[in-house]
Fold each of these.
Amino acid sequence: MARAGLNTERVVAAAADLADETGFDHVTMSALARRLGVKDASLYSHLRSAADLRTRVALLAARDFGDHVTAAVAGRAGKDALTAFAAAYRSFALKHPGRYAATQIPLAPEVVAGSPGHLRMSEATYAMLRAYRLPEPDLTDAVRLLRSAFHGHSSIEASGGFQAARAVRASWDRNIDALHFLLEHWPPSAAHETGRG
C-alpha cells in the first residue's frame, strides 16, 4: 500500500531532488523508496517501471530548465538575450546537476513533442536567436553550436576540469563575446556562396 499523502508528482519531485544530490545515474527505485521511507513495491502504485521514473524526471527537469531560461530571456534581445540565456543555462547546470543530466537523455519523439518543458526551451532558444536573423539551415547549426558550447563548458566546470590560473568566469564572458561576434558574422554556406538552394 502506498504511503499516505504520496502521489506521482511528489514521488517524481523527490526523485529529481535525489538526482541533484547523488547524480541522475544513481536514481533507482530502491534508492527512491529509501528516501521516501517506503517499500520498493509501493512505488509501483505511482510508476510503471524504472524507465518510467527516468522519463518522468527528465520531463520535470525539462520543465524546470525551460522555466528558468524563459524567465531569464524575457524582454531581452540580441547580445543581452544571448548573455542572459547562457547565464541561465550555466546556472541551472551547476545548481541542479541531476536535473540537468536528466534533460540530456534521449526520449522518444512523441514524448518530447508532448512535453511543455521541451517546448518552452525550444521557444526560448529560437527567440533568443531571432535578432541574428539567421536563415535555415544556419539557424539549426547555430542552435547546435550554442548547445554544444554551453553544455561543454558547464560540464567541464562542474567536474572541476578547468585548472588554468585564469578565472573561469572571465573565460566564460569572453566566450559569450566570441559567440555573439560569430552569430553577427555567420559565415555563408557553400550553397549561399554559389547561389544554390
Note: The radius of gyration is 20 Å.
Amino acid sequence: MIEPWQESAPGVLRLPSGRLVRGRALRRPLPEGPRPTHAVHLLGKRPPEVPWESVWLRWPDFRLPADRDTARAVLADAWERAADERVEIACGGGRGRTGTALACLAVLDGVPAEEAVDHVRRHYDRHAVETPWQRRYVRRFSA
C-alpha cells in the first residue's frame, strides 16, 4: 500500500470520505516529502515531464477546461485514485483552476455542489476558485 499524504502537509485537503488530495502551484518548488503517484496538471499548454504518472488537462488560466467531458473523466479518475494513491491537482498558481478542480472532487465525494467552493476555501485556500464562471462550473458539476 502507498503511504498517504500527511494531512498536515501544505496544500493537502481532506475530503469528507477521508481521501487526501494535494493541491499546489506548479510555479513554486516541489514541496519536501513524498512525491505524488498521480498528478493532474491544469494548464493552457503542455506541462514539463515529471517522474510520476501525470495527466494534462487543457485548462487556460482564469478559464474553464477546454473539454468538459474530458475534465469530468479526469477528475473522476483522480477522485477514485485518491482512495489509495497520493493524488496531486496543480495549476500555475495553485488557486483558481486547482481550487475549482478540488471543489469538483469535493462534489464527487458527496459535498453538495452549492457548498463545495466554501468547503475548499475553508480547508485548502481561502482564495481558491477565483472567478464567477469557475464558481458556476462547480455549482453545475454533479456527482
Note: The longest helix spans residues 68-81.
Amino acid sequence: MDTTLRTRVRAGDHEAFGDLFDAYARSVYNHAFRLTGDWASAEDVVSLTFLDAWRLRDRLDEEGGSLRPWLLGIATNVARNIRRAARRHSAAVARLPRDETVRDFAEEVAGRVDDAAQLALVRTALAKLRRAEREVLALCVWSGLDYAAAADALGVPVGTVRSRLSRARKKLAKHMEPPEARGQIRGDRTTAVRPLREGNR
C-alpha cells in the first residue's frame, strides 16, 4: 500500500493525500502532543505537517517503506518552529505592562488528564531533557519507530539516535522518581518510565 501511496503522493494526487491523512493523522497528532504538551498546539502541528508534506512531496524518495517516519520527521520540525514562536510570544508578553493579565492555559490542559499529579511529574521530567532527547524519545518510545526510521526522520546517524535515547531514558528514570523516593538506595527506578510507553501510538 505504502509503495503505491508514495508514488501517488509524489505525483500530487489529491486523493492520495486524503488517504495519507486518514492513515497517519492520528499518529502525527499523538507525536505532536508528546512534543508540545498542548492539545491546541498539537492540532496546529498536524495541519502544518500535512501542508508541508504537500509542499515537499517532490522531495520524497521514490522508493521506501512506510511514509510514517517521513511525516513524523516533518512534524518534529514543525513542532520546533512552533516552540520558537511560542518563546517569542512569551518574550513579547513579558514586556507588557505588569498590570495586564495573561490567561494561563496550563490548568485547562491538566484538567483534561485523569491524573494531574502524574502529568505534572511527567512534564517536569520531560522539561529537564534536551530538545534532541525529547524528540528521539517521542519517536522511538511513544511513536514506536525503530532506530533506523527515527534516524531517517531526524536526519541523523543511527548511533546518534541510540545515544540520545539512552541518555533520555536515564534522565527520565532519575527525574520520574517521586520526591519522597529520592535519596533511597532501593527501588525499581525503571517502573517510573513505564507509564510513558503506554497509550495509542
Note: Residues 184-201 have pLDDT under 50 and may be disordered.
Amino acid sequence: MRLFLALWPGPGVRAQLHEWAVSAHSECGGRVLRAQTLHLTLAFLDEVDPARLPVLLSLMQRTPLEPFTLTFDHLGYWSDRKIVWAGAPSVPDHLVATRNTLLSQWRATGARVVTQSFRPHVSLLRHARRAPSDLYPPPLIWHCDGYVLVHSVRTPRGPHYRLLAEHHSGQPGGQHDGFFETSAEKSAMPATQYGIVG
C-alpha cells in the first residue's frame, strides 16, 4: 500500500483552492487537480505492508495535532516537475514537531523512512507550461484541526486517494466535512475522534 499523511481541507478551503487552480490553468495550461483530492502532504510513507497498518494506526492514535491556522498567500511553480502550487509563508512549530514525531516513531518500529524535507504546499496544476503571472492572490485562511492517513491507489487515470484514517482535535461528535469517504464502514477502535474511514 502506498501511504501518506496529509492535511485534508474542508469544502470551503477546497473550493477556494480549486478556484485558484482553474484561474491559473487558463494561463499556465496543464491539468487541474480534482477539488476533492486537494491536500497538503505531511509525509510520504511509500509502500507499507498492509499487515503493519495497525502499528501505524496506533501511532496516529497517540499523536494528536493541536488546532492551528494556515494562511496561503502565494503561488509557486516548480519548472522541473511542471507543478503550480499554493504556499503559506510559515507553518506552526508544533505542526513540524508532530510530523517529526510520527516519522521518528514509525522508524523506531523498524519501518523504512526516507529522509525528506518538508515543503508545505498544495499542488494545483500538473504538467503546467509556465508559472502564473499573478503569484499573489488574496490570502486564503485554512483552520486545521487534525490530519489523515491516505492510501494512494494507482489507476490508469492517475492516483485515486482513499482516506483510511483520521485524527481530529475538535470536540467529540464534530463534523468531519473535509473527508472524501469511499464507504460508511467505521473502525472498532475506541477513541472517539479517531476511526477508519475507508
Note: Confidence is low (pLDDT under 50) at residues 171-198.
